[in-house]
Design goal:
heterodimer, A: about 80 residues, B: alpha+beta, Aldehyde Oxidoreductase, domain 3, 9 strands, globular
C-alpha cells in the first residue's frame, strides 16, 4: 500500500512511501508506523486516516493496493 | 421564477477553492452581488504578525488538493442549501502568505443578514477544523512551527469529532 503524509508528519516520515507488510486494518498501520518512529506517536494519535481520499475509522479494512493518506490536524484559516 | 433564472443560481462552481496566488477580495466580492440578496457577508482570515509571543515573518500553507477541493465544494454546497443562500464561495491560499494578507475568504449572500452571517461562520469553522490544509509559521528569529492545529480531539476523544465556534455561538 502507498502512504502519503503531510505537514508535521513529514518531520517524521517521507511524503510518499510504500508499506509492504501484511496489515489488515488502519489501526495495524498506525501501530506499525509508531514502531517505525516512536517520536511520531503523538501526532499520529491526532491524525485522521483516509483511504482512496475518503476518511475512515481505525477499524477500516485495508487492501494491498490501497492509497492511504495520513492527515494531521487541520490548521487552515 | 423567471426573473431568478436571469441570474446565476447560488453558484460557486467557477471559483477554485484553492489559490496559490494572492486572493483578490474585491474581484470575488464583485461576483457576489445579486438582486435577491439584501445581505452580503465577506470574511477574510488574515495573517497576524505575531503568534505564541513571537514575531511572525510569514506563513506557508500546505494543502492536500485531492481532498481539500472536494471538501470545500461540499461544505459550501451544504451551506447554500441549509440557509437558502443566493450565493456562497470559499477560497483558501496555498504557499507563502505574509502578515496582513488574506489566507482565506468566505463570501455568503442571502435576502436577509441572519442567514448570510450564520452560513459564513459555519463555512469558515468547518474549513478550519476539517479540510486538509495546514499552516507552518515562520518566525523572524528563524524558527518554524506547524501551528494553530485543531485540538478538538483532546476534548471529544475522536479525531473526527469537532467543536465549532458556530455551535458554541448558537448556545449563547
Amino acid at each position: 500500500m502507498t502512504i502519503q503524509t503531510f505537514a508535521a508528519l513529514k518531520d517524521y516520515f517521507s511524503a510518499n512511501f510504500e508499506v509492504l507488510e501484511n496489515l489488515n486494518h488502519i489501526t495495524d498501520l498506525k501501530t506499525f508506523l509508531v514502531q517505525q518512529n516512536p517520536n511520531a506517536e503523538a501526532v499520529l494519535n491526532l491524525s485522521r486516516f483516509a483511504v482512496n481520499d475518503t476518511f475512515v475509522d481505525l477499524d477500516f479494512e485495508i487492501k494491498p493496493n490501497d492509497s492511504i493518506s495520513i492527515i494531521p490536524p487541520s490548521s487552515g484559516g | 421564477m423567471t426573473a431568478l433564472a436571469l441570474y446565476p443560481q447560488a453558484a460557486e462552481v467557477n471559483i477554485e477553492p484553492l489559490n496559490a496566488l494572492p486572493l483578490n477580495l474585491v474581484a470575488l466580492l464583485s461576483l457576489a452581488h445579486h438582486p435577491k440578496a439584501g445581505a452580503v457577508v465577506l470574511f477574510s482570515g488574515e495573517v497576524r504578525d505575531n503568534s505564541l509571543g513571537k514575531a511572525v515573518d510569514y506563513l506557508e500553507y500546505e494543502a492536500y488538493p485531492a481532498m481539500a477541493i472536494k471538501m470545500i465544494h461540499a461544505i459550501v454546497a451544504e451551506a447554500i442549501t441549509r440557509w437558502q443562500l443566493t450565493y456562497a464561495i470559499a477560497q483558501h491560499r496555498t504557499g507563502i502568505v505574509k502578515s496582513g494578507e488574506s489566507a482565506v475568504v468566505v463570501i455568503t449572500t442571502s435576502p436577509h443578514r441572519t442567514e448570510a452571517y450564520a452560513a459564513n461562520r459555519y463555512i469558515i469553522d468547518r474549513i478550519k477544523h476539517e479540510v486538509p490544509i495546514w499552516k507552518c509559521e515562520y518566525f523572524t528569529d528563524g524558527t518554524k512551527e506547524w501551528g494553530g492545529n485543531c485540538n478538538c480531539q483532546k476534548l471529544t476523544g475522536d479525531v473526527n469529532k469537532h467543536i465549532y465556534e458556530f455551535d458554541q455561538q448558537n448556545k449563547l
